[in-house]
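Bug #77: duplicate submission created two jobs. Keeping one. Sequence:
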Amino acid sequence: MKTALVLGAGGFIGSHMVKRLRKEGYWVRGVDLKAPEYSKTEANEFVYGDLRDVEFVRRVIQYKGEQGNFYNSVPYRYILPFDEIYQFAADMGGAGFVFTGENDADIMHNSVSINLNVLEEVRKLNETFDGEENGTECVRPILNQPTKIFYSGSACMYPEHNQLDPNNPDCREESAYPADPDSEYGWEKLFSERLYFAYNRNYNIPVRVARYHNIFGPEGTWQGGREKAPAAICRKVANAGLADTIEVWGDGEQTRSFLYVDECIEATRRLMDSDFIGPVNIGSEEMVTINELVRITAKVAQKSIGRKHIDGPLGVRGRNSNNDLIREKLDWDYTMTLEEGIRKTYEWINLQVCKEKISPIPGVDISSYGYGGLIPEEPSITPYR
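Kept job's structure:
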């Protein structure tokens, strides 16, 4: 049985990856500061912990097989690396979080710390398999296949000067340099991408790096300031009446492409199973303006929605995935239209909005109403301290 460690497994993309890996027969350990918010984790083992803590990372990357789980002590000879690690953990959010400037230091410090810890502790664990005796325990065999690590980069690392024209942005992989991201979040993503490739060159750690373009779908953040455009628009439309007006940041003519989460997971799995290390775009080429995104969402909701344009953080003027490289290397392309993905997402977010509008009744648990549950069950494992 193959093993996988999913970091950020309580988040949107990470929780979907856990589900996919379990369907493929993997033994999966999920790790995050919190459990998935909208459904129970499907990981074989879910561990609470802070990946900025080096000691925690050192422990969590160790697979102990059938001899014990994360919280049990087992003989040194039973500790193995995971076959695969999926690194989704990061300090992130939508434009309302990333582009204000108020969170820049935290974004850079937290995300870089996590990536440095993961790579360095994987390197150290791999190097114990050197055929040498370790104390009185055993001789560690040489690893035939070191842990393969996937890193989820972002299209936010592309230069701002290539994304000024909303009708013709240039997001080819080779266009990344000379570097000029428009946010500290983008600079961190660029640095961390280079960090993974440096550990690949210097320490022979197999890595795979993707640049995600605006992934969306059910069970993602949909309110609170960290949500991305599709979720924010779906929420606003769901809260609106049949002929209301919603607020849109800027003139709404900024362009983006959005990829449904299931397609993102499929592309990521293909990358991990390939010999291609990346970087490679994973996104849709169906570029729309934010005004068009509102129109599509209103159509799905069967509402006549007006727009009130207000000041707000915008990011670059235009961004669209270029999928030439992933088609060539992985024979992958997106298949779901934006409208189909918005339909699935809107149905889920509309349900969450309806749940919130139900007046709390003392003694009545509404978490069992409809899809999933509002409050996930606590895992049986005691959180890491």
